[in-house]
Design brief:
Blueprint lengths: L7 E3 L12 E6 L13 E13 L5 E9 L8 E10 L5 E10 L3 H32 L1
Antiparallel strand pairs: 1-2, 2-3, 3-4, 4-5, 5-6
Length: 137
């Protein structure tokens, strides 16, 4: 396991174990980042976008977008974007961010906003460590 923020996801059997566009899945989240999902925090997400883009430096980038589906859209909307690109020196850059809107967004910010910032930073670090270790194997 490389991701202690989201140590487990549930995919529908129809996805054959692969995450792709139009797949609705559930994340089991550990807001403490210790890899131990409590069962209390589960996020239902819909992967909507998997696209390749041409960047200004001639390289390709890839974007994956997930939409939160755990709450009615009138109450809380969330969009998580993962972007993989290369800088001008050929160094891989991985960015992830999540945007919240709707009346409940302020509660997300107040109650878990700072924890989410920490967990996304942890996610990036753990993904980097995992991929670098696999590249050296």
């Amino acid at each position: 396991m490389w991701n202690n923020f989201v140590p487990k996801i549930d995919l529908p059997s129809s996805s054959h174990g692969r995450l792709g566009p139009d797949v609705l899945f559930t994340e089991h989240v550990d807001m403490f980042g210790q890899g131990k999902p409590s069962g209390l925090v589960k996020m239902t997400l819909l992967m909507t976008t998997l696209q390749e883009k041409d960047e200004h430096n001639g390289s390709k980038s890839f974007e994956v977008v997930w939409l939160g589906k755990a709450y009615p859209s009138w109450a809380l909307r969330s969009e998580r974007v993962h972007k993989i690109s290369c800088d001008d020196q050929g160094i891989t850059i991985y960015d992830v961010w999540e945007t919240f809107s709707g009346p409940l967004a302020i509660l997300v910010r107040l109650f878990v906003g700072s924890a989410l910032v920490k967990r996304f930073k942890q996610w990036n670090e753990e993904l980097r460590d995992y991929t670098e270790a696999r590249a050296q194997a």
